[in-house]
## 1
Amino acid sequence: GNSVTQMEGPVTLSEEAFLTINCTYTATGYPSLFWYVQYPGEGLQLLLKATKADDKGSNKGFEATYRKETTSFHLEKGSVQVSDSAVYFCALYSGGGADGLTFGKGTHLIIQP
Amino acid sequence: DADVTQTPRNRITKTGKRIMLECSQTKGHDRMYWYRQDPGLGLRLIYYSFDVKDINKGEISDGYSVSRQAQAKFSLSLESAIPNQTALYFCATSDSGLNEKLFFGSGTQLSVL
């Protein structure tokens, strides 16, 4: 079956540090890959996505590249801000309409001033 | 106003009680979903509906039922609540499927004592 593995949190960084949150996946076929972000007290919001190999999704300074050869979709940002503090979820969808998105367990990111 | 509204925001109940969580949306989307979020487990799909006449079980539907009263309304019921159903519940909608953006409500925190 499908699965998504994310690095354990919490991840604590200082403001302006470089961020990487690792995500690897197992899926049948050629899934679409997503990063969702959950700010405190809110629902999840789509941050970025990539639908095929070598695609790069980007939004709000965050980037992730779909790497089929390593089955990875690592999230990166060059200079984080306190406002980036949130829980980040990697997810995949392998098509067919059923079973929904498969989510990772989430990585709690804490940015200190 | 929020596009996807969940009520109540918080609920505490006792084992054996019947509970209904409600979700309404103003986005005009046909597809609606119920997820639960547990610490360290990410999000798991409970039920989903592609239109008013369509209801489908997700990964963890046992102990839950749903009703799609209209395109804009999708409610989740726990017929006889048990403590391991304590979780954060999210409703979500999408326009054209899981390969596209999901829009989440702010969640309902349910505690079963």
Note: Chain B has no helices and eleven strands.
## 2
Amino acid sequence: SQTIHQWPATLVQPVGSPLSLECTVEGTSNPNLYWYRQAAGRGLQLLFYSIGIDQISSEVPQNLSASRPQDRQFILSSKKLLLSDSGFYLCAWERKGGQEETQYFGPGTRLLVL
Amino acid sequence: KQEVTQIPAALSVPEGENLVLNCSFTDSAIYNLQWFRQDPGKGLTSLLLIQSSQREQTSGRLNASLDKSSGRSTLYIAASQPGDSATYLCAVSWFDGANNLFFGTGTRLTVIP
């Protein structure tokens, strides 16, 4: 069976500090990977997606970046956090296929920037 | 602009009641539509997925319908239970190179025992 892990579960960081959130998937290969953010009072917003190693697409301009150094590893980073980066970050994976494919979400990382 | 809207934002019902959650979307050329459940502080769990050529999907007490022409989907929950209390999210994909999902802001459901 497939599982998706995210860590850390919770993170409190000062403004201007760097960030690294990690997401790994087990039990599948060559998945599509996604990073979403859920800010307080707002819906889930897609940040990045990846269809393969080192293939990253960004959906919104921001001070965040993403990398996929291995097939089942997706990393979300920032060099300098802003207050507005606070939120709940969710990683998701999906099999490559057709319209019938759903996305499977990780447990999320709650980030508070102070 | 592709947008997904959900109403109501919150809903409280007594246990045993049947209920309907609504989702509307701009641009009828969707790829698929999904309903997810999110418990407080947790990730999302997929409930139902409707492909663009389908009209509805059912799983247990849940039934989701899709009307592309009107840009609407509904999630019907029969005989609601306290364990159904959660936030329900509607997500639409218009497939722009990947199955990117656009989410509504959700309906927070409380089922009162």
Note: The two ends of chain A are 38 Å apart (CA to CA).
## 3
Amino acid sequence: GAVVSQHPSRVICKSGTSVKIECRSLDFQATTMFWYRQFPKKSLMLMATSNEGSKATYEQGVEKDKFLINHASLTLSTLTVTSAHPEDSSFYICSAGSGTSYEQYFGPGTRLTVT
Amino acid sequence: QKEVEQNSGPLSVPEGAIASLNCTYSDRVSQSFFWYRQYSGKSPELIMSIYSNGDKEDGRFTAQLNKASQYVSLLIRDSQPSDSATYLCAVLKAAGNKLTFGGGTRVLVKP
């Protein structure tokens, strides 16, 4: 399957600061990437769909000014959590589709802890 | 009614037995179906995709799709302790490319 990487894998930040998470498709070009968050023992919650060269589409209830998404190239999408608060602590996971099928491949995830 | 429903489990299976997982979906026009495995603390890993009615086999895994009844299942043969994980059913709607996930079924394979 296709390979998707995320960086960093784990980050601890102080309340009020911003954190950027990178998602890269390593062996294919991804016109669309997806950002999810997952709380402990809960299922994945889609936050937004990231489209290369255009604005992201956010799911209902997700603040676009708080979770900034940029998809500047066919292999890179970034999620910036601005003015982070403890309630933003979660597991953030990106996924990408290869475009040749409907399958989506997930990055390894980023565990964010806001203190 | 949730769009994609799964029994949360845990489904306890003795080693070597068959684990049977079920998933139902509400959107009748859904076309693509996926099973992901997620180990604790890790991200989901794609196991199987299925698009047509019937069975699809890949190693010890068999996915079954019945669009008329709106369910998709996953069988794990010769279950191993390493199969202990949460299995997520995901459905791709006909419109758009967003996956809708079920809540997952936790599987425990006991040696």
Note: The interface with chain B takes residues 1, 32, 34, 42-44, 46, 49, 93, 95, 97, 101-109 of chain A (CB under 8 Å).
## 4
Amino acid sequence: EVQLVESGGGLVQPGGSLRLSCAASGFTVSSNYMSWVRQAPGKGLEWVSVIYSGGSTYYADSVKGRFTISRDNSKNTLYLQMNSLRAEDTAVYYCARDLDYGGNSCFDYWGQGTLVTVSS
Amino acid sequence: SSELTQDPAVSVALGQTVRITCQGDSLRSYYASWYQQKPGQAPVLVIYGKNNRPSGIPDRFSGSSSGNTASLTITGAQAEDEADYYCNSRDSSGNHLKVFGGGTKLTVL
């Protein structure tokens, strides 16, 4: 059974840092594309970042230069390092398996999400 | 980056058919995928590709596409279908980014 479990969320001050983790089971993270998607309170979904199976990484303009996506193959875990956090980064952060099919993309498995609150 | 536009809210009578649409330039090049999200829960994939349903998704959910518009149709809407629905696709600029629509709140009357 595929399962994704996020952790690491919490309250952080503006300008601070936080690292989110997403532990996967039932499939191999390094053999798949993996994304982070966030949802601000009461708002819609926003794609944040993807890491390809080959290791290439891409970011939404809103987080580029501040966030870093990575993975630990030995732990089958995905990470999101978030630096220089702003109030507008406050959101529930989901990790999701990013299924690539013929150049198209969809998110077929999602974690339960972890809440990040940026506030003084 | 590309944008996907959805109607903020749609309503349907119980048992009737409803179509939720998503418009954007990226849909001329890429298929949309559709997600259902109920309050306090993670999104769930309901349609992807030309018209594919993941295992466990009822066959009353279907997808279609024409030009720059993708549609999610629920035939015989049930009370449990009341939720937010989001479309998603790859960005059309070729920069490996992904984009979501703003979401549609579906009310089943």
Note: The mean pLDDT of chain B is 95.
